[in-house]
Structure formats: structure tokens, C-alpha cells
Specification:
Length: 488
């Protein structure tokens, strides 16, 4: 059977490169890249994307290259009581660049005046400040570092032209992500010793937008049978088959006049040019909060997907309790808004087509917990002066899931009930967790020492959680219970 390529898609358009995208994972391919494709199909944008590999060990770009930067998006689910099952080949990516081997090629893009837009999704862990050395010939490890050098290259090539800046849309699920990214880039530019005129140009010539994204993208099918069924339907093989739900929402805190440049709404996409805050509160606390709350609990209970968790009576009762009794009470939106949105989320979790892997949700799981769950947990404690049961149980489960047992090369591994699994978090966090757990010996004293060490890490949680009344005691209780259950 043929592999997806230009030979399969004989009428692929050739469009100028207008977008640089930091990241090439499932979500961006099933969300932003799919949206650009929809606009291109109707002749309203007429531009392509250059995808930049975000990490040194990325595996996506070689697959994209083998397929001439084509891939298939499949949208499956229930929408307005109708079954949706649609597939199409997405053509919006023109090429990809590995910045760790071809950094100068990335910088040359900054000199291209057709490039106007920058999108990114490097996860919550990627949108963080890290002190780095300026090495002009080498890509910085961090996304903000790469962006700072990219902007500096444009600044120099355009000789500071005030009309030469970019429209920048970070899609990381971090509050005020555009403001935060700009703040970090400005700090990095100081670290690199760049002139004050450059920072003034960043402020005046570039537009950093706060955004909120929403679509469940599960990516490549997990079973050989499902893969073969798709291939037989398509009559070609696709290593980057990207499966997601029909529902999508993109909120951008920018003027509606941006539709002249990015006509999302004109092609019927669910784009809101408005304040992110009211959408974010519901989406992050309920949809992302429940996802992050359940991933470690589900995995430790032997489940693999969100749907399996939802179909387990005991776990479903836990989720319903967490939603109604722990999340709802601390949200400031109206009861009706909460109820309507929560019902839509539950229906999306129950999508029979949606094999959303808990292990995928668990990527950078502790960073996600800090952003998506911890604020709700702390708000609940502040309001009711007691620790919420399910959210603290979830916290304990996440800490246990991310217990580092050993390293193989650069990869950390966890273990649970005889099963070994890779742990994906930033390296500093994993090294810290390995050290925190290394002297644990099943005694209550060592358990308290482990939890005390982890909770006091202000770099990890942005505050010393040992100062939160009774939280440590509750986490120790649930960790001890989980460990006892594992040996019974």
C-alpha cells in the first residue's frame, strides 16, 4: 500500500510561507494547522506553515518529511445529535526544520517578509523562563530563547522597521500566555545582551495575544486493528494520522479586525475575538481540570483511556463528586453556565470514537497539575478551610505516578504493579523527584520526608505547599493508601 505523499494527493497547492510554528505535535496538527487548511481551501488565507521541532529528540518531523508534509485529520464524534466521521488530508505545512541541526535555516525565515504569524504549543512546561547563554550559531534549548533570537534576526534584517513585527499566538494552556511569553522574551533578550532598542521594538512592533484553545485531539490510533481499518479506507498509509473530536474553540484576546488577516470566522470556525478570562475559567477548571485530575488515578487503577475511566462506576462517581462538590463551588460563573459547560464536557468524555489516552494527558503531568488543578484545590481550602478529598487524592496519585525508579539514557521510567512506563516532564523536575524518593523505605517517617521535600519546592509549585494547612497530612494519607493497595 502507498504511503501518503504528493503522489497520492495530486493537486496540492503551492502557497507562500506565512506562518512559523514552534511545535508539530498532535494538537497543533489537529487544531491550528487544520484551521489554516480550512481557510486555504476557500482561498481566504493562501499561506503555508513552517513547523519548527521544539525538542532535540523530536520524532514528528522525519515522519512529516517522509510524507511530503501531508497528514490526515479524522474528526469523529457526536455534534448537535449528529454522528460526525470526517477525514481529509491537511496540506497547510510546507516544510519542517530541526533547529538543533539547522538553526541558521530557522533564522533565515525571520528575514522572509512574507512571514507574519507565529503560533506555538510547547506545553505548559515550555512556556517558562530559563537562564541561557547566548550562542549565535546554536538554538537555545527553550522556546522563549529561540523566539528571542528569531525576533532579533527580524529586527536586524528589517533595521528596526516598526512595521516589521509579528502577530504571535502562544497556544500553551497558561493564563495570560501572550503576556507571559512577551515578558520572558524581554528577559531573555536582556540575558543575551541585546540592545534596548530591540526590546522597544518587541514592545511596539509585535503583537502577543492571550489565547485559549479547546479541542480533544487523541492523535494516532493505538491499536493495530484500528490503524489497518483506516488505511484500508484511505488506500494509503499515514504515519501521522491525527484523530480528534469535531468540537473546537479558539479564543483570542484581540480585535475582530484581525479577521482581515486571519479570516477564521469567514470559513465557519468557532473563533472568538474577545477576552479569554471567562472562557478560560470554565475550560481550564472543568475540562482540563478533570482530565488532569483523572489521568494518574486512572493509570494506577489499570485504565488506559478517558472513556474507560468514565465507564467504571466507581471512578465515574469520583469524577462526578469532584465536579459537583469540589470544582463547581469555587467557580464564580453562574450555576447555569457551569452546568451547561460541564454537561458538554461529560458528553465529550463519553465520545465513543474518542480513545483519549491517559498517558498522553499525563505528559508533563505535574506542570499541568500546577496550572489546571492546584488553583482549584487551593481555592477550595481557602473557602472551606478543609482539603478537598478527590483533588488531594489526585495530587497524591500524580506524585506516585511520577516517582522516578530509574533512568535509561536520558529517559526516566516509573513502575507500578510490575509495569514500566516512560515519564515525560522537564529534566529538572524529574531529577528532583528521583532524589526526593531515593531514600524511601516504606516507613511513615520516610513518607513524610518525601512529601515534605516535594511540597516545599517553590520552583515546581510556585509556592511552598507545606504552608497550606493540612494539605501535607492529606497527601501523605492518600499516598500511603495507594502504596498499601499496590501490595495487597
Amino acid at each position: 500500500m502507498k504511503r501518503l505523499s504528493n503522489d497520492v494527493l495530486t493537486q496540492r497547492p503551492t502557497l507562500p510561507e506565512k506562518i512559523v510554528q514552534f511545535g508539530e505535535g498532535n494538537f497543533l496538527r489537529g487544531f491550528i494547522d487544520w484551521m489554516i487548511h480550512q481557510m486555504n481551501k476557500q482561498g481566504l488565507f493562501n499561506g503555508s506553515i513552517v513547523a519548527i521541532q521544539p525538542t532535540p529528540h523530536g520524532r514528528i518531523l522525519p515522519k512529516l518529511a517522509r510524507q511530503d508534509y501531508l497528514y490526515t485529520t479524522v474528526l469523529r464524534g457526536i455534534q448537535e445529535n449528529q454522528v460526525i466521521d470526517q477525514a481529509e488530508v491537511v496540506t497547510s505545512i510546507s516544510r519542517g526544520i530541526n533547529p538543533y541541526s539547522d538553526w541558521q535555516e530557522v533564522l533565515s525565515l525571520a528575514q522572509n517578509k512574507d512571514i507574519q504569524f507565529i503560533f506555538s504549543n510547547t506545553t505548559e512546561a515550555g512556556l517558562a523562563y530559563k537562564e541561557e547563554k547566548y550562542e549565535p550559531e546554536t538554538a537555545p534549548p527553550s522556546f522563549p530563547g529561540k523566539l528571542a533570537l528569531f525576533l532579533y534576526e527580524r529586527f536586524q534584517s528589517a533595521q528596526g522597521d516598526p512595521n516589521s513585527g509579528f502577530y504571535i499566538f502562544p497556544c500553551e494552556l497558561v493564563e495570560n500566555n501572550g503576556d507571559l511569553l512577551k515578558e520572558i522574551v524581554l528577559k531573555v533578550s536582556q540575558d543575551f545582551g541585546f540592545p534596548e532598542a530591540f526590546r522597544s521594538w518587541i514592545e511596539s512592533a509585535n503583537h502577543f495575544y492571550n489565547t485559549l484553545v479547546d479541542r480533544i485531539v487523541t492523535g494516532f490510533p493505538k491499536t493495530n486493528g484500528e490503524v489497518e481499518a483506516f488505511y484500508n479506507t484511505f488506500h494509503y498509509e499515514d504515519e501521522l494520522l491525527t484523530i480528534g473530536e469535531p468540537y473546537h474553540l479558539f479564543v483570542i484576546d484581540g480585535p475582530i479586525t484581525m479577521e482581515e488577516l486571519l479570516p477564521f470566522q469567514q470559513v465557519g470556525l468557532n473563533i472568538q475575538w474577545t477576552s479569554v478570562k471567562p472562557f478560560r475559567e470554565l475550560k481550564v477548571r472543568i475540562l482540563n481540570g478533570l482530565h488532569t485530575m483523572m489521568y494518574a488515578i486512572g493509570l494506577l487503577k489499570g485504565k488506559e483511556t478517558v472513556l474507560e475511566v468514565m465507564e467504571d462506576n466507581a471512578l465515574r462517581a469520583m469524577i462526578d463528586h469532584c465536579l459537583q462538590q469540589e470544582i463547581f463551588p469555587v467557580l464564580e460563573t453562574s450555576d447555569e453556565e457551569k452546568a451547561v459547560f460541564a454537561e458538554s464536557v461529560i458528553q465529550r468524555f463519553l465520545n465513543p470514537f474518542n480513545h483519549h489516552q491517559l498517558s498522553d494527558i499525563g505528559l508533563n503531568g505535574l506542570s499541568k497539575f500546577r496550572v489546571r488543578v492546584l488553583p482549584t484545590l487551593l481555592d477550595y481550602i481557602e473557602k472551606y478551610h478543609q482539603v478537598p478529598e478527590i483533588l488531594s487524592y489526585s495530587f497524591a496519585a500524580s506524585l506516585l505516578y511520577y516517582r522516578v525508579h530509574y533512568y535509561e539514557g536520558d529517559t526516566a521510567y516509573g513502575q507500578w504493579k510490575g509495569k514500566t512506563y516512560p515519564l515525560k516532564e522537564n529534566n529538572e523536575t524529574l531529577k528532583f523527584l528521583e532524589q526526593a524518593w531515593q531514600n524511601y523505605d516504606d516507613t511513615s517517617e520516610k513518607m513524610e520526608a518525601v512529601v515534605n521535600t516535594i511540597l516545599e519546592n517553590q520552583t515546581l509549585w510556585e509556592k511552598n505547599l507545606n504552608k497550606v494547612p493540612t494539605l501535607k497530612k492529606k497527601v501523605i494519607h492518600f499516598l500511603s493508601k495507594l502504596l498499601a493497595d499496590s501490595s495487597s
